[in-house]
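User: Can you predict the 3D structure of Amino acid transporter transmembrane domain-containing protein? Sequence below.
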Amino acid sequence: MSEKKEHETLGPMDPKYGEMADAPGYSHDAVFGEMGEDGPDYRSVGWLGSAVLMMKSQIGIGVLSIPVAFDALGIVPGVICLLAIGGITTWSDYIIGVFKLRHPEVYGIDDVGHLLFGKTGRIVLGAAFCLWWTFVAGSGMLGLSIGLNTVSSHATCTAVWVAIAAIFGFMFGSIQTLGRISWLAWLGLFSILASKLVLIVTIAVGVQDRPASAPHDGVWVSDYKIINSEATFTQAITALTTIVFAYAGTPAFFSIASEMRDPTHYNRALIMCQVVVTAFYLIIGIVMYYFCGSYVASPALGSGGATIKIVSYGFALPGLLASTLLFVHITAKYVFVRILSGTRHLAANTLTHWVVWISCTAGVALIAYIIASAIPVFSDLVSLVGALLGTPMCFQPMAGMWLYDNWHTPGPKSMQWKLMVAWCVFVIVSGTFLMIGGTYGSIITIMESYAKSGGSAAWSCADNS
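Assistant: Sure. Here are the predicted structure tokens for Amino acid transporter transmembrane domain-containing protein:
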């Protein structure tokens, strides 16, 4: 049964969920407007596909830096911080689902900004959303260039590999709907989980004599730390923002919920996503740091030696490509919807529709390419993006969303209400601290990286693998 016919047999959906089938072959959506047979089906993603898209918006790039974050903090603080940040972002993700059902016209975080702070809020959060996902797309292209350099033994200039990554990100990111992209997300997730992409390295470093970058003379024992009491503020805050980056698929969940066939199934997709993601992060972070200690590589796939590194990146490439194209698509889709909102061109395959859509995906890919080429140090780019844009995308707005819907609750305020207000204040304060402190730490780290002799330079041809 085709997706269009499946919509027809389901019958009319409750208007409060954003879609109602007014007639066969026709539907109206609170975000995409009138959708007919001659246009893309923007409401075609099932809950399982949504879970995979959620997982792919997180697993892929962030996981490659989790062991390095544990090195900065130590195993115990690292696990505690990962669970804490995972808990906060899971709550934020849950609030998105609740808010979307109450406000079906909300498509992105800028709509939240408009409800909370008016026009200024829309502009600020809309700009932050675009910058955030464009930076993340840039980190995906950088990760792809590292993988291509690895499997090809640096067959060409790194700047060329970044450009190739940008071209593929643009081509596949231009697929119109998340429903059609979901199979690529399955492929990317399969390359990481089922094909044991990162686990290949984990097993390798667990059974071999020592990690690739450790000294080759004498007996080697892992120098992992239970608690790293010697960590500086810069190292600690950078590690925290790296973990934030690993969980910061949150703003994409607005777009995913908007294209779900049945948004009431959002929570089951979210639970599946967060359980798998958190378990995977813990396993990879603990095992790899335990066996590699301070010699864990960033990205972590380089920790298993030359041969294992090539094999691992061979499996990794589909997953890294899937992440990159998803980031390009989500950013471009946001701009596309904003440009054509309220017009028939949004949900119809007109010339205007295609010109605007391709222009959006090409523009996002180009800017992401420039970012990836200008900041070619993977761990530094991850921490900077996580600090500057990740926290304000995952912490503060979601607390504001709960307060917006519950602040004027009639009647006497219960203890539960007061505790939730206190929780929201904590989320706002902690998010602001991570944003300011993490940005400072990341900038210092990037400056130190560029100051080192032999460090990577912008648009460099040097091997970044």
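The first strand starts at residue 19 and ends at 23. DSSP finds 16 helices and three strands in the chain.
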